[in-house]
Records
---
Amino acid sequence: MGKDVLGTVYETLLCSPGMNEAVKIDAKISRKTILLLSRLIENGAGQDGNVLGLLGLIPAEDREELKNFGDECLKKAGLKELSEKIKTLKN
């Protein structure tokens, strides 16, 4: 499926009725999974506006909400500081 077709499909899905409604999720996942999920979100959202893959097809405000979700998960798991230290190793 071409990127333009995939983009149209996702735009249609994201505009569907009820997609902006908040949903409460009660999930128990490991800290390892939270750390990995957060890194996947950050890598997909890119640095300096360089957005990769599927995240490039969604609006900037939705990408920001996804980043905030990853940060919130890190905070709740007590991994925010560890994540920041790991980022410094990359530089």
---
Amino acid sequence: MRLAQAFLAMIVLLAGCSGPGQKDTPAGRDGSGWTEVFRDDFTGAAGSALPSGWLHDVGTCYPGCPAPQWGTGEIETMTAAPENVSLDGRGNLAITPLLRDGAWTSGRVETRRSDFRPPPGGALRIEARIQLPRVTEADGAGYWPAFWMLGARLREGYTGWPGVGEIDVVEAVNGRPSVMAALHCGVTPGGPCGEPSGIGSGERPCPTCHGGFHRYGVEITASEIRWYLDDAPILTVAATRVDPATWREATDHGFFLILNVAVGGGLPAAFGGGPTAATASGRPMLVDYVSVTARGSGSS
């Protein structure tokens, strides 16, 4: 999603539809051989701090600022303030963008763990149940919520994006009644993955995703990556889509998970621009749970 928009806009491909999410057990806990390796249900009193398995990203870039404005051109400043990131007391993590005195703040959190990868010969599934911010195209210009993953080396100061791999489980922009998913890999611009757009789903219609809970998931194996919306497939990228070296560099390592709501930046600009005077402040993204499960050799 994100770093791709540091440079240019995403190409839009229209397709597909999905139904409403339901509050049930995540995929992978149905006795089908999946083992849960990480989970957070975000239970706690309203206003409680971020659970211990997560880290705050603050400011406008990682330490050393290798990619200003988080590499995307977004205009908010990320904070650890409870008004931007906290539990809502109803079993959700709330990430809330706010406009005060002409400046936007918001929240961006990532897992402490950066070792999420499929076991040898097996599969890894990452899933979250999320309510995207309750905005429309009339009052949501500039909103850019997302759930995504980055290759672990980027946390160590490596600057080789997109080669190190980025998997966008879900993102949405400007209150549009749709969601998107993508893989970013190779080099930019161009390269085997068509960066900066990446290999993506394009817009998938989902008129209830803004203001309703849905389950967003991705399954990773050595041979392909599959994306789901409420268990319905929305994108599959096979390893054969790119050369072996590109696939290996983008996928054969650990990842960390990220949840955030950006304001402005390259992707919103691609769909009509950033925030306006009509953009609503204080519409949170709510996250019911995040679950990581594994299946296959070495998953227990």
---
Amino acid sequence: MAPLGIAIVGSGIFVREQHLPAALATPLLTIKAIWSRSLSSAEQAAKLIPEGSQAAVDLYSSDSGPGKGYDDLLKRSDIVGVILALPIPDMPAYIEKALAAGKHVLGEKPIAPTIGKALELVEYYKKVSADAGGQAATWSVAENFRFIPAYDYAVEQIKTLGKMTAFHVKVCNLMEESNKYYGTAWRAKPEFQGGFILDGGVHFTAALRKLLGDENSVQSLSAYTAQVRSWLPPVDSVHAVLKAKSGVIGTYVQSAGSSAGSFQFQIVCENGVVEAESRKCVVIRGHGADAKREEKDFTPTFGVKEEVHAWGEALQTGKPNPAQSPEQAVADLELIEKMLNSGQQGGSSQSTEYQ
């Protein structure tokens, strides 16, 4: 199959370190253009494309003058889709413009700043699709944690251990002021709920939802939130108790302000335990002295190359990947938003609607 032409919209850290290499790695896509707010940042991103790896890319920006803006990029017939990676508050408007122009979209997570805005986007997408008689461009959401092989393996192992009885997530680190991601103004002074809890949290709720499966989807939760570090507004920590529709109860702890580093996804079943992370999956079969520990290592990956390749396959075949559906991303966001709402209300019980 001939590679399909795409554009990358945005030139921030994640684009430079993840999206560009991922798009270059798949034979299903070829980068035709890069857009950024400033021409200088678009140029910096373009310099990362190895010479001779593909044809030269065209650059677009807000300050490039007539014929070189975002709207102009969307008019190009040789560009069938765009990878969008912009500040969270800006994403919805750029998604809508791309879909209206008939371009397929792979938009970075979270799907939107709030569930309300996410649902508006979903309705807009449905309208565009209906108006086009089913021939409209597709909208996919880039959640790379759904494409990490270790979690796929963990899901299969969970199925061999009987009924799920508990689950625990603990992801803690310290987002220091010197961190490169803190250095981006829209993250340091967020104009969206939850700050780093939202920005990073949807990764972790996506992984949790994958491990739980539909039969153990979260039905309700209660949480407390706090701002531990002065430079991480509005909150940097959440501690929650979640109850699945199956009755299984679990815990979710996330902090960007913690001195104690931790990255744990633990699923407890009747006949054993699965502990998963991006590079390793540990399976403990049985109990007590008779328990047997199995450990499987995986090639380190953040899942971005896998997700971009999956999007390329979807464009080539005309069949969107279910793991990249807006509905999945809405469910990821809902869990974080419900935790934040519960925390604001002193730990009130919150019921889910979109799991």
